[in-house]
Design goal:
- Helix content is about 30%, strand content about 35%.
- The protein is of the alpha+beta class.
- The chain has a single domain, classed as Alpha-Beta Complex (Aspartate Aminotransferase, domain 1), CATH 3.90.1150.30.
- The protein has a six-stranded antiparallel β-sheet with strand order 1-2-3-4-6-5.
- A hairpin with a 2-residue loop joins strand 2 and strand 3 (about 35-40).
């Protein structure tokens, strides 16, 4: 699966102030590794954010947000957010903020 270069550029800009950001092709798209931990990835028409599993059930109620399912298993703490629901800067910043906040305390 190809990833959206437009979304990737948006995320690059949002993370540009951070000292330790790497990009790696994974999850069928492009993942952004912050402080040696997977934080956000970009797909064709969505992003995947790694968030605090404690707030997972609350945030999946937001429009355009879905739990990541891989290998038939739901992964709490990982959510897909549809591109159409992050076109607004406020909503985009919300999801990036959740991912970066959890990245600070995530173990790996």
């Amino acid at each position: 699966m190809a990833y959206s270069e437009m979304l990737a550029n948006k995320i690059r800009d949002a993370l540009s102030h951070l000292p330790q950001v790497m990009e790696k092709k994974m999850f069928g798209g492009l993942a952004f590794i912050v402080s040696n931990k997977m934080c956000i990835s970009v797909g064709a028409n969505r992003i995947m954010c790694r968030i605090d599993p404690v707030i997972h059930e609350k945030v999946i109620k937001r429009k355009g947000c879905h739990t990541v399912v891989m290998g038939g298993r739901e992964h709490k703490g990982y959510v897909y957010v549809d591109e159409k629901n992050i076109k607004n800067k406020k909503y985009f910043d919300y999801w990036i903020g959740l991912a970066l906040n959890y990245n600070k305390v995530a173990k790996t």
